[in-house]
Amino acid sequence: MNDRVYFPKWYLRGIRENPRTSGPLVKKFVNLDVRMYIRFLNWVPAALKMPEQELIQHAGLDSAVYIRIYLLGLKIFVPIALLAFGVLLPINYTGGNFHIMSLSMKDLTYGEIDKFSISNVPPASKRLVAHIIMAYAFTFWTCYILYKEYKIVTDMRLHFLASQSRRPDQFTVLVRNVPSDPDESLSEHVEHFFRVNHPGQYLTHKVVYNANKLAKLVDQKKNLHNRLIYYTNKYERKPSKRPTTKTGFWGLWGKKIDAIDYYTKEIEKLNKEEDAERERVIADPEAVVPAAFVSFRSRWGAAVCAQTQQTRNPTQWLTDWAPEPRDVYWNNLAIPFVSLNVRKLVMTAALFGLIFCFMIPIAIVQTLANIESIEKVLPFLRPLIDRGSTKSLIQGYIPGIVLKIFLLFLPMILMEMSKIEGHVAVSDLEAKSAAKYHLFLLVNVFLGSIVTGTALQQLKEFLNKSPSEIPKTVGVSVPMKATFFITYIMVDGWAGVAAEILRVVPLILYHLKNIFLVKTEKDRDEAMDPGSLQWPITEPRLQLYFLLGLVYSTVTPILLPFIIIFFAFAYLIFRHQIINVYNQKYESAASFWPDVNRRILIGLMISQLALLGLLSTKKAANSTPVLIVLPILTFWFHKVCKNRFESAFRMFPLQDAMIKDTLERATEPQLDLKAYLKDAYTHPVFKGGQVELMEIDDEDDIENHLVATTRSRKGSQAGTTEGSPEDRTGIYAV
Amino acid sequence: MNDRVYFPKWYLRGIRENPRTSGPLVKKFVNLDVRMYIRFLNWVPAALKMPEQELIQHAGLDSAVYIRIYLLGLKIFVPIALLAFGVLLPINYTGGNFHIMSLSMKDLTYGEIDKFSISNVPPASKRLVAHIIMAYAFTFWTCYILYKEYKIVTDMRLHFLASQSRRPDQFTVLVRNVPSDPDESLSEHVEHFFRVNHPGQYLTHKVVYNANKLAKLVDQKKNLHNRLIYYTNKYERKPSKRPTTKTGFWGLWGKKIDAIDYYTKEIEKLNKEEDAERERVIADPEAVVPAAFVSFRSRWGAAVCAQTQQTRNPTQWLTDWAPEPRDVYWNNLAIPFVSLNVRKLVMTAALFGLIFCFMIPIAIVQTLANIESIEKVLPFLRPLIDRGSTKSLIQGYIPGIVLKIFLLFLPMILMEMSKIEGHVAVSDLEAKSAAKYHLFLLVNVFLGSIVTGTALQQLKEFLNKSPSEIPKTVGVSVPMKATFFITYIMVDGWAGVAAEILRVVPLILYHLKNIFLVKTEKDRDEAMDPGSLQWPITEPRLQLYFLLGLVYSTVTPILLPFIIIFFAFAYLIFRHQIINVYNQKYESAASFWPDVNRRILIGLMISQLALLGLLSTKKAANSTPVLIVLPILTFWFHKVCKNRFESAFRMFPLQDAMIKDTLERATEPQLDLKAYLKDAYTHPVFKGGQVELMEIDDEDDIENHLVATTRSRKGSQAGTTEGSPEDRTGIYAV
């Protein structure tokens, strides 16, 4: 029964059959077979068995590299933990600071954990040299592992790209900000420009249309069509009774009418509207957006065009690699260059405001959502609320719930902010919102836990302190918060991973949807869809564990085993999840790795500065010049990594393009590339109307295969273009 | 007589004849003709008369744009001064703070200037709103002018590049870090790589040789040859007596011998050595450096290669535009990629040390160079020193002189540091040392004057202060230092410009050289050479005046007229100098403008932060959020400028390349580009030995026209390759 929740990927691939169980009702919901629970742990060896090469083929490179982050955590922290336990724990334990202190001030109580931490080493002790040496050792080890991992991931990416079969985005470049020309249409202008400036390489292009309204109509029709199928199925099963519906909202009220007739008529009406709108978009020169997908005869030609500047004015004819067709975020294609600068400025200010003032709106909501106002709005709840116990419960929980709700919506808010910034690929959008989320967690969770008070208060405090005071403030609090973070790792980390394998939320949602929403087989498929890994949320959270591990490695090494258990457990579980559950929407070939590497290095630098601050309060003032070298070296290491590897994640080298081109020319000399690229970059809403478009193409000979953009902010529309385009052609063909 | 010092450019161009004056000896050194001194000012209208287009043709775009910086200063500060005098001066003057203060503390004396400054406005006065509004007005005006100027310079540059005639660097790309191949020679490897990956575009290439020793030999021979000519001339004038020389150092001691015979023999000996070395370099595969100049059939092909990544490994086959042949810094071509990263790190640390600890070595030298140690080293000076007056004079002046000498050598030290960083073009080297010098002046002259004490003490103080304290410390001191900076502008700025037009130092040097060193006509030409504008030194100094003007525009506007006079005066004089004196070594087509723009914006931001600090001490605390917006907006404006214009200074757009290629193909269809490029990128030391090289070329058919690099740190060798290559061919042909 729940198989579809735990192994949806296999259903999506059509490998598992729909189980047609029809046992007693109880069995349907509660699994009474005890063996099942034992078998439940079978996935552990299964998840580990699949070799990496097969994993890449099965789940894509993005997922395969994503779980390597957990492995990376193990690689970094297991040797660090061994070293720290061997060297630092005995040194700390025999430090005897608390013995001295407990004699002087009896009231301070220290936990057993603190005996193993640096706090137990008395100030100005010679023992602190060990901590400095260990800081160096841990830094070099972390950098060494990061460098090796970066190299491995780069090789994996390059190998993946090289062995990839032909894809439209290998030949295509996205051109933005095409200047208008008084004598030519946009399409002609694009063609002439590239014919002249990339002679022999230009093949074809597609103009982008603003199909905002059209996309809405198509969405509506899809919905109606789904209902039609539902009622047709119902009628087929019970031919004795024509199904009926009501004309009002969601079929809940209004006049009762024959459902099949009604929806057939409605669809026909929409069909006509859609045709009219489609013709308008094609005919109206105003509907053309100054952007185009330009395709070249070879990968070499596309690589050249993507990497070079076209004209004197760098704000016009901006060329960059076209995102994978599934990855295009159509809504942002029309944003002009000037507006991009302003948008970025505004969003940076907004992010700053969000991070440092995020408690303010929550506090407002919390005061508004108090008992009195609830009673006012929903007076029928009054008798319930007025009972004493309920009242205190609500008053106690509402602030926490409001905060949780806000945190739940935070990734979505950050995603919307990234959308406003104007990135044109979904993968870009996710990378940018991940960066924002990382910053938020760093300030509000890490710093916020260490230095109590809201982020705004912290900022005020920090601005009024000297720069050398900041590491001190953080450093001093670090050892005191070890117990808190151990709890955090267990509650958020371990329990979060356990919830992930049990898929509690999706399980509930799936069953809710099944009961209330699912009407046709297609609906069920959609309800079952597990979505993608959501790495823009999980990856920044994960970085917090790297940060904690690095910060506490020298201070309270006893925390490290908890981190290691988290990484090991999470590695296992996510390996299982990417094999059996998640279904990636697009493939970016691990293009997020530079971000991962950078963020771990940020964590490393924070850990070094915190240690610096801590030791300077330990009256080991001479340690400052020795320790200040570490963050500088780390920053330099970041630069080295960037120079050495990052271009492999941003550019496509000409040599590789040439090799692939030559190979293809030798093996498939008859390949009709133009036909292959014909519909690759067509907006999903135009995929159904190909017949009409073909005719227009034949007429004017310029290949303006219609590509459209919607200006709506709905997002989900482009974001959820899952499945191959062929899937949906069938729907529209009706 | 001094004509050669004041108008050397015309001599270098061969327009002015050598004056053969032979009047009385006194007249030779002291000009007795009073009219000359009146005529002396004639250059002012003459300097202004030349239209800009002609100026560009005469002096190059670099120089023409350089003097626009002074004009930019006028454009920014004249309206700011008018506005400040109209609005701020009356407000400050009637502020009456000093009236109040002088009642309370009689001992404080304020100058008349302070009455016009913001210090005269009492704390928490409403009048301060005017200063805030003015800060906004000045910021917007400065940004507006900067944007307009950036646009003009960009257009000038693009127009200049477009109208430029054919140049070898338009077709050539510098490839560095060519990986070694076991099966092929480096030259073959380069050729095969580019034939495969840039098919149809690759034309030819030149391997770079390490010709360190050879360059030294050529230098020696040049020196001997010069002496030979000197003695031959001497003999021709007085055929009765064969000139003699001595074999020892500089012909000062040793055996007396016949000079012409001796030098002829020596030159022959060197010729043989040189030939042997040349053959060794050509034959020895070890002498080949993993770099090459690759030329393409078209500008389009070169533009594509320069802007794209060639292989997976971004540390190999690094391509970039080849510098102009005169601009190549041969010594750095062989530095491997890994070493570049380390070098940059070390040099950044060294620069930091230099800036913040520059007083330390000077103090050491100052203590070493005291009277006692001078007496020890040079005991014969004792009687002179021991006289009381001399002693105190020396003791008073030595520290100042040591500091002056250090400051004189500073640009050279910074240039050496840039050379170690590994840039391959002289223009790059100059840009980088200018950036270092700017930072040095900012910290040690501006901040150092405002906050007294050495930079290291300042740094310590700043690190112990909170970030919000730093603008306060600076801001409070700013109005107090107005008088000091007015003096500075007059002493350093005005007097410096006056010294520039009088060319005091070059005048003395020229006459000294003429008496002691000049032996032949060629020597005299070299002594006369005025060198280039040295903008890596003058431009950062100039930026100081922008900074002062912007900082004081809201605080003490009375300083602005001094700045304006400086800019106007300097504009006039430098316009004259670039027309009549300086002779640019290379043409970078104003590629330094992004740096100029950035540095002015840095100055603007410093001025905003200083005002912010100042007002926060004036108890106008509410002003902080209003004023903190300004530096953020300025930074954003910098980003906008960068996005909008900078690529025009870094890249060559494909469209422009294509236009020039097409035009050339139409006008000169028979052009033999290969022949044109044959010797363009040949190391100067190989230019003389072309005959031998030609033969080798014919033999192996691969176009390895020899190009060499010297590993010596002499620098001057590549830096002073002035004049066209043909000039020197004649010398070696003897």
TrEMBL record, chains A, B:
Q: Report the membrane topology from the UniProt record.
A: Multi-pass membrane protein
InterPro entries membership: Csc1-like (IPR045122), CSC1/OSCA1-like_7TM (IPR003864), CSC1/OSCA1-like_cyt (IPR027815), CSC1/OSCA1-like_N (IPR032880)
Provide the protein's localization.
Membrane
Taking every annotated instance into account, which residue ranges of this chain make up the domain CSC1/OSCA1-like cytosolic?
170-332
Compositional bias annotation for Polar residues: 708-723
Gene Ontology CC terms, in alphabetical order = plasma membrane
Q: Where is the CSC1/OSCA1-like N-terminal transmembrane domain?
A: 2-149
Q: Which Pfam families match?
A: PHM7_cyt (PF14703), RSN1_7TM (PF02714), RSN1_TM (PF13967)
Q: Give the protein family.
A: Belongs to the CSC1 (TC 1.A.17) family.
Instruction: Please report the name of this protein according to its UniProt entry.
Output: Uncharacterized protein
Where does this protein come from, organism-wise? Tagetes erecta
